Recover the amino acids of this structure.
């Protein structure tokens, strides 16, 4: 049984949709179930997703998709050599998702980067501050409504 | 009498000779022992992901050159493979082999830089010079094929820019032999060197569990004994047909990472040699039987409508446009008109190809992958280099995300440092092989 089927069987209600475009197994889940499903992915022996390879987000403002944001997790299992993408839709009004940094320490910096670049908050994150930009930076540069040539005021010591 | 102990905060970087690249570490010291460490990154952020959203797919290649600037070819290959997966196209065999050859040359140059720089920081200046000499030899090979040393932009969606040059294989064989000599010399100078050994052994430790939990891949993970290599786990291009080993360490310290890198270089050289044996022909022969005319003359003729028998003429092209020449274009580029630019002779001499050319290079036209998303991992020099691309069906990517292999390693760096001495920061940071270009993007 593929990992996609296993998750579908375990969480029939919590999953919004699935697809395997170009062979990449993907599940789109409801945001409130993220931690339950993540724990299932990590702790089920047949799945055993011990790597959280990548966490990122996508802004669908121009594509007109609702809700506007999606947080994308890429999991990898060393033992089973399989991959899974989990996507969590995030509302523009309340851009907030649960953190996974206690399950996978790798999520810590990735979530900081998403906060920095997209302004999506992670509930329960131990140290949610900007990582690539500086604290005085205004706005979140990877949002589609942030112009790529926008200038920021110079900051420096008083 | 009681003595009071207080810990001291020490800033290392952002501009420090041992911090190759700009990065700041705030180290908390108790005497000389490290009690805590905080890593601050972002000093080289150039908005790679944002800029990729503003240009067409093919125009992203120059940006990818500047990710890991010690092995730019692997970035090129990774991005091209991700877009090809999105488009669902396959590329000719010869192009696959060329990509593997160029990736492996880059991997060797990357490891040479890393080991050489680490050794230099521990006082072994000679080793650094020897290894940079070997890197220079390999970069000459890269230069010969791509026309550039660092900002190569060599790979194209659907193939590569230029075929291997004539006699490349012999020259490469000579340089591989010289690189091997340097590796033996390095081994003689370092492996049983008391200073090097003592400073590398037992410092910068990380366990396999921690490395996996932090999402670390590449030589750093393999030094802990986990044999994860994308080339073996999810073979891409022709790696499944090549015989190579994945070296692993046992303890996950700096010395193991040195051994892993040294062995990986040898394996990469083996891969290059096997590729030369297996690569399907399509070699460039200097047989120009037809009449050779300058490119400008051909354009003039076409403009005046003298297109009769124009395609039979050989055009004298600038060497940087070699890959566009018709003769071997089909060997190194996919037969996809929607993706691959037509050969230059055809662009110059018939209207269909000219339109084809413009359809691919004009904003609003360009390559338009179907709506969807893909993630494609390749084995970069530092670990899994993944490109996640989201397409909304237009000619501009909706999102280009690169998973930089340095990033999780830097996140785990405090873990490696705590408990070590201040002086151990240097070998540990050296063996991370942090490349700020890909870390900060």
């Amino acid at each position: 049984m593929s990992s996609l089927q296993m998750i579908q069987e375990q969480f029939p209600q919590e999953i919004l949709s699935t697809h395997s475009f170009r062979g990449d197994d993907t599940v789109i889940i409801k945001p409130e179930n993220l931690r339950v499903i993540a724990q299932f992915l990590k702790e089920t022996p047949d799945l055993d997703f011990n790597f959280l390879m990548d966490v990122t987000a996508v802004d669908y403002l121009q594509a007109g998709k609702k809700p506007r944001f999606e947080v994308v997790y890429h999991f990898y299992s060393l033992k089973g050599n399989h991959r899974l993408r989990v996507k969590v839709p995030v509302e523009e009004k309340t851009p907030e998702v649960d953190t996974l940094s206690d399950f996978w320490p790798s999520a810590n910096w990735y979530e900081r980067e998403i906060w920095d670049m997209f302004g999506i908050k992670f509930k329960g994150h131990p140290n949610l501050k900007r990582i690539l930009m500086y604290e005085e930076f205004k706005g979140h540069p990877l949002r589609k409504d942030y112009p790529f040539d926008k200038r920021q005021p110079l900051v420096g010591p008083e | 009498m009681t003595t009071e102990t207080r810990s001291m905060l020490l800033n290392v970087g952002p501009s420090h000779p041992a911090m190759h690249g700009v990065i700041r570490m705030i180290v908390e010291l108790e005497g000389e022992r490290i009690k805590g460490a905080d890593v601050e990154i972002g000093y080289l952020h150039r908005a790679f992901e944002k800029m990729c959203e503003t240009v067409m797919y093919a125009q992203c290649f120059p940006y990818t050159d500047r990710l890991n600037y010690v092995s730019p070819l692997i970035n090129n290959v990774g991005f091209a493979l991700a877009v090809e997966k999105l488009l669902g196209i396959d590329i000719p065999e010869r192009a696959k082999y060329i990509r593997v050859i160029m990736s492996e040359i880059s991997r060797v140059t990357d490891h040479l830089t890393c080991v050489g720089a680490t050794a230099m920081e521990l006082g072994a200046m000679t080793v650094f010079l020897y290894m940079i000499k070997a890197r220079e030899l390999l970069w000459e090979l890269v230069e010969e094929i791509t026309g550039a040393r660092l900002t190569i932009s060599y790979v194209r969606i659907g193939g590569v820019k230029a075929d291997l040059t004539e006699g490349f294989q012999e020259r490469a064989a000579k340089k591989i032999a010289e690189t091997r000599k340097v590796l033996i010399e390095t081994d003689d100078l370092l492996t049983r060197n008391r200073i090097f050994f003592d400073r590398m052994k037992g410092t910068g430790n990380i366990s396999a569990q921690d490395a996996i939990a932090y999402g670390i891949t590449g030589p750093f993970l393999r030094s802990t004994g986990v044999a994860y290599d994308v080339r073996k786990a999810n073979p891409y291009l022709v790696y499944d047909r090549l015989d190579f080993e994945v070296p692993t360490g046992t303890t996950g310290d700096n010395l193991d990472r040195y051994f892993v890198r040294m062995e990986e270089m040898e394996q990469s050289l083996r891969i290059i040699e096997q590729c030369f044996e297996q690569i399907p022909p399509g070699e460039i022969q200097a047989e120009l039987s037809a009449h050779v005319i300058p490119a400008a003359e051909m354009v003039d003729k076409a403009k005046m409508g003298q297109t009769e028998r124009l395609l039979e003429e050989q055009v004298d092209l600038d060497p940087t446009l070699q890959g566009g020449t018709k003769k071997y274009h089909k060997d190194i580029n996919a037969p996809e008109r929607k993706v691959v630019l037509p050969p230059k002779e055809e662009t110059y001499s018939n209207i269909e190809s000219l339109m084809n050319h413009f359809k691919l290079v004009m904003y609003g036209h360009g390559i338009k992958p179907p709506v969807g998303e893909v993630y494609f991992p390749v084995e970069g020099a530092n670990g899994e280099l993944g490109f996640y691309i989201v397409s909304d069906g237009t000619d501009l990517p909706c999102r280009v995300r690169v998973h930089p292999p340095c990033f999780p390693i830097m996140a785990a760096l405090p873990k490696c440092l705590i408990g070590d001495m201040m002086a151990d920061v240097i070998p540990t940071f050296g063996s991370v092989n942090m490349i700020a270009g890909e870390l900060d993007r």
Q: What stands out?
A: The mean pLDDT of chain B is 85.
